[in-house]
Amino acid sequence: MDGSALPPVSGASLPPDAPEDGNERPGSRQRASERAGELFSEFAKEDGTIAVSALGDLLSAVDISSSPDTCMRVVSTVAGPHAESMTRDQALAVVGMISTERTSVGGSLSPPQTQSQPPVQPSQQQQQQQQQQQQQQTPILPSSSSLGTAAATAAVAAGPFRLESAPPSSSHSYLGNPGVGGGEGSGNGPSRPFRRILTKNRSYLETGALHLDEAVVQYMAKLEEHRRKCEVEGRYQEAKVASRRLADLRTAQVDSLRQELASNQSRELEEVHAVYEEEAAKFHQLWDQRMRDYGVNLTKALEDLKSSHTTQLAAYVEELQRKKPTRARPSRDYLVQREMQDKLVKAKLYGRATKVKSMADELYQAELETTVAAWEAESKLKIAKLQSKQQNEYEVLLQRGSKGRDELELKRLAETERRTLRFRNIVSELEQLHKVKRAYLAEWGTFSINCF
Question: Which ranges are annotated Gly residues under compositional bias (predicted)?
Answer without folding.
Answer: 178-188
